[in-house]
TrEMBL record:
CDD domains: REC_hyHK_CKI1_RcsC-like (cd17546). The keyword Nucleus does not apply. Pfam families: Response_reg. One of its GO terms (molecular function) is kinase activity. The modification 4-aspartylphosphate is found at residue 31. This is Hybrid sensor histidine kinase/response regulator. PANTHER family: HYBRID SIGNAL TRANSDUCTION HISTIDINE KINASE J (PTHR45339:SF1).
Length: 91
């Protein structure tokens, strides 16, 4: 609220894809570990469906190979969990 945004929450990757394709989001914070469909697959699906907005991967896996994988499927950046508000504001 301090940033003047209203978040919309998806409970799994499939719902995230559905919501992103019907809403005009300015930013997606994509959890990489979700039930039904994970963040990697959801991001790939959004990019194949021509979603071109920013997608930030949220993950506890910040090893270089993991981050490279997130970027390769279409994430624009990666943030570690728990989310640091200062770091989020600088992405």
């Amino acid at each position: 609220q301090a940033w003047g945004i209203t978040p919309d929450i998806a409970i799994n990757g499939a719902e995230a894809v559905e919501k992103a394709l019907v809403n005009d989001y300015q930013l997606i914070l994509m959890d990489m570990q979700m039930p039904v469909m994970g963040g990697l697959e959801a991001t790939e699906m959004l990019r194949h469906a021509a979603y071109d907005g920013p997608i930030i991967a949220l993950t506890a896996n910040l090893m270089k190979q993991d981050v490279d994988t997130y970027l390769a499927v279409g994430c624009d950046a990666t943030l570690g969990k728990p989310i640091d508000k200062t770091e989020l504001g600088s992405v």
